[in-house]
Design a protein that fits this description.
Elements (H helix, E strand, L loop, with lengths): L2 H31 L12 H27 L17 E6 L2 E7 L7 E4 L2 E6 L4 H6 L7 E6 L2 E10 L1
Parallel strand pairs: 2-4
Antiparallel strand pairs: 1-2, 1-6, 3-4, 5-6
Helix pairs in contact: 1-2
Length: 159
């Protein structure tokens, strides 16, 4: 697993999401300020609703911009089998029936990318899964709670 390529794919995915949100934010802003969105009476809230939408989308744009910057500048640390899982680690966990791949990043949790034919999920240290993996090492069993169930996984690789 080449982390440089992994990070590049994450940044590409976030950049594509950013372009969509920026376009949507612009459309919502135009709707909010359009003369037809002006309230016709005290119960007409079209313009107000459009402004709330534009504000939320603008916040999402700012979040994506910050995520791109932090992921792009994340140090490319190489982890060995004895190193504990921390920010910047690519982690593979296994259990009966399959392997799951994760990348621990400061932001952009929930982003999924495909690399070398594997789906890699970005997780953050603040997420429940991120908290459960932090500090474990290659070979460690990890109890992972997902959807109300607890499953035992084994940390198979940390890079």
């Amino acid at each position: 697993m080449d982390k440089t390529i992994l990070i590049q794919r994450i940044v590409e995915k976030l950049s594509a999401d950013l372009a969509l949100y920026a376009k949507a934010a612009g459309a919502a802003r135009a709707e909010a300020t359009h003369e037809q969105s002006r309230a016709e009476n005290k119960y007409d809230t079209r313009g107000l609703e459009a402004s709330y939408l534009a504000r939320g989308q603008a916040r999402q744009v700012a979040e994506l911009e910050a995520s791109i910057q932090q992921v792009r500048t994340l140090p490319r640390r190489t982890f060995g089998p004895a190193d504990p899982i921390d920010l910047g680690a690519y982690v593979e966990t296994g259990r009966r029936g399959g392997t799951s791949c994760y990348f621990l990043a400061p932001r952009a949790g929930g982003t999924e990318v495909t690399i070398d034919g594997r789906e890699v999920l970005v997780i953050t240290p603040q997420s429940p899964l991120g908290r459960q993996l932090l500090g474990h090492r290659q070979g460690d069993p990890v109890k992972i709670e997902l959807a109300g169930r607890t499953e035992t996984h084994r940390v198979e690789r940390v890079l």
